Amino acid sequence: MNLKKIFAGLVILAVTAAATGFVKFDDDPIIKKIVDQLEKWTSDHPQEKVYLQLDKPYYGVGDNIWLKAYITVGPEHRLSALSGALNVELLDEQDSVKQWIKLPVTSGVTWGDLALSDTLQEGNYRIRAYTNWMRNAGPDYYFEKNIAIGNAATNTVFTKATYSYTKANGAQKVDANINYVDLDNAPYAGKEVSYAVKLNNKQILKSKGVTDDKGNLAVSFLNTTPAATSSGSIVTNIKVADKKTVTKTISFSSASGQVDVQFFPESGNLVNGLRSRIAFKAVGPDGLGVEIKGTVTDNDNQELAVISTRHLGMGIFAITPQSGKIYKAQITYPDGSQNTITLPQALPQGYVLTVNNNDTASISVRVNGAAGVDSKNVYLVAQSSGAVCYVARNNAGSNSFSAVIPKSKFPSGIAQFTLFSATGEPLNERIAFVQRQDDLLKLSVNADQPNSAPRQKVKISLNARNNGGKPVVGVFSAAVIDESKVQSDETAETSIMSQLLLTSDLKGYVEQPNYYFTKATEKTAADLDILMMTQGYRRFEWKPLMANQLSPTLYQPEKSLQISGTLKTSGGKPVPNGKIMLLTTAGGTFILDTVADSQGKFAFKNLVFKDSIKFVLQARTAKGSKNVEIALDNLPSQAKMSSKRMPDLQINSVAALTSYLKYSKKQYDEEAKYGIGNHTIMLKEVTVTEKRKSAVSNSSNLNGPGNADQVITSDALDKMGCATIDQCLQGRLLGVIFRNGIPYSTRSFNSPMQLIVDGIYVEGDYLTTIPPSNVASVEVLRTIGNTAIYGSRGGGGVLIINTKRGGEYAYNASQIYSPGIVTYTPKGFYSARQFYAPKYDDPKTNTVLADLRTTIHWVPNILTDSNGNASFEYFNAGSKGTYRVVIEGINDEGFIGRQVYRYQVQ
Question: Which of 54, 73, 221, 555 is the most exposed place for a label (fewest CB within 10 A)?
């Protein structure tokens, strides 16, 4: 959005006195300061947002999560050129990162996948995605999506829990009923169950029980701190057969049974004598909206308003508060219980800012001031994502004034309206949602055969146009699923529109975000406006912004991968102008060198390498001395914190997947039958009489374990009966002699061999300190083919000592001092796999195998041509049903689009 265009000419504010106040933008110091500060914030802190399209809403262990990422920047949601890397994580219910991949970003898009290991525990997980730059805003603004993961191969027990709450002895009594059934919904009756209850990761109860004839187990416990309890779990062990016990963990987001009702006066405060709209929100113990009803009365018991929720626990009413009055809401909850809540106290003086967002073309803003306030020279500012969209000053001095602002001045998304005093102090605030039709893409999706057969080829055609009907060149992604196997709730889904336009700008939780976009009606628009009144825009705070006191920028954009650090002396002082070399032989020999600056800092920038690549860094002072230490830069890890999407967690996550897991089990068994698929086969228990160890364990050999001219194993060392490792090796290494305990290669008598212990470079005489019992293997590198990777350090040969790790053999090699050399394995880019789909017109395709795919097809990178057209082909799975095609994407102007298409397979 071009700020200069907005403020070229005059800023106008219409007032109720039928007059119009004018003010030149550049002539008013308050307006200029507000706009200048916002422009500076937008320039210094451009807002990146991330959206991930996933192939389906839930998964089974052994599945792949296919994903496409769209990274945008700025108020117009254009594809970002700011970041070149995206972090994608899979976290469990304890907020521990189970998987982490880094994806390369080109022109704001990337794609990849997460392979769910067969050893992963079933339960609730969440996908989190963010760029390094987004860490400055914090986790509240990352992309997050909760997913349930079940186990189709080994899970034989499915649970469903319900909770009820009562007060007992000043505490909260929680009565849980846990139902146990198998995959066919048959109850586990009369089974012994032991269980432990945990609140906030602390065990408060341990007991036993037996399921009844319907598979139910009753568990009761007391929560003595319901207000402080945010999460809990019941860990149960059910004995389903002799010698077979199954552990199930049933989680809940809160152990408190109280419904929280909050009231939100429009623009912040109630003011005596001014009519105000008040939004309210009722939230249950699980964080989800609860239906309530009631009345509002004053202290004379006069009824002023009847209230009831209209959507997901939210509603609205209006009153005109009077001086000396106290207002209360008598609330009735779904279970019939009642409560009385006092409304916020009205102020004697102040303003009420009212926004009317009903018109499709404009937004009406009205400001009412209490009698006696000086409303002259107060300012109204509207901004969206830091872009100033409207600024005005009340010149007429009336206490009641209004403005009608065309929606064309705003981009689609959240707009913030703020009333400032004559001195520039923020007084009132209100956010509203602007949905323009001219920055949404119109997507048309069709199948060449709306009714097709199993395993038949299908061609999906896409046409993308803007609101004016002109074809659009854009990037898109598509997921095709079988709805008979994977059911979805479209209103509860996260879509490209709900994420980029709505939830990415809010710290608070939004329930069923796609409800406001699936079918836009007057009701959904009104419900969305109430949602805005219960939320707050918190990308920045006005007061620190105006005072230049915003938090400093701690994280820089990752344009590409880099390895950086500082050269220091042993005393910690910087080594200026030192020389440093970076090398690896992964994928061929790769060598770079650079010179540190006057502070000893160095950086190898614009690197592109795969994950798990091992590098060697070698440093020298400017005069060639090796007495230098390398301190590598590492980004601080993410702080462990709970998600704002906790209410989305399913208490009965796996029970909800029963239908899906049935098909997954069939597919799993079918693949195992033919020896295909990426599955771990669980074997029956056997007695192991001998276990052959790998010849080279714990190897730090840069050429790879065992890629050496000679290898000595721990078994051989154990038979030698030596006190130190140098004694064991003398006379037993081909082409190696020892002088005073230091090894030399017969190829180079002038310089000793480089000794490396667990990847740490040490001096040769260190051999005399290593007991043979601690050594797992010795690798000898003498020939050029094996020593080249070590550069000049390998000129005299390399002797690698790999120690045993852990237990009685624990060996702290990290304490070994090795000046000028470090080995380093930084996080590299993940190489995305290609989605596999069978081609039934290929005679090599196995047609005997039952095709029970749940994700029928996945296309992460679809590009429309100059006519707005694109297409892709695939074969249906082997089952009949309704197939659902979801296509989402964006063009270079930041216009976004989503289309859902269904066709029948009969």
Answer: 555
Give the chain's end-to-end CA distance (angstroms, integer).
49
CATH of domain 710-821: 2.170.130.10
Q: What is the token pair recorded at 447?
A: 């199948």
Q: What is the DSSP letter of 653?
A: T
The structural domains of the chain, with segments of one domain joined by +, span 561-632, 710-821
> Which residues contact residue 428 at a Cβ distance below 8 angstroms, ignoring those fewer than 6 apart?
267, 268, 269, 350, 351, 352, 353, 367, 418, 419
Lowest mean pLDDT among 290-294, 640-644, 747-751, 820-824: 640-644
The whole-angstrom separation of Cα 246 and Cα 237 is 5
Question: What is the gyration radius of the CA atoms in the chain, in angstroms?
Answer: 33
d(CA 904, CA 906): 6
Rounded distance, CA 6 to CA 455, Å?
A: 56
Long-range contacts of 34-38 (CB under 8 A, 24+ apart): 34/379, 34/381, 34/388, 34/391, 34/420, 34/424, 34/546, 35/3, 35/7, 35/388, 35/391, 37/545, 37/546, 37/548, 38/383, 38/386, 38/387, 38/388, 38/545
Read off the pLDDT band of 638 (50, 70, 90): low
Q: How confident is the model at residue 808 (pLDDT cuts 50, 70, 90)?
A: very low
> pTM above 0.85?
no
Q: Quick one: which of 494, 501, 474 has its CA closest to 411? A: 501
* 336 Cβ contact partners less than 8 Å away, ≥ 6 residues apart: none
pLDDT tens digit string along 437-476? 888 999 999 999 889 999 999 999 999 999 999 999 999 9
Query: In whole numbers, what is the pLDDT of the chain averaged over residues?
Result: 86
Burial of 488: CB neighbours in 10 Å, binned 0-12, 13-18, 19+: middle
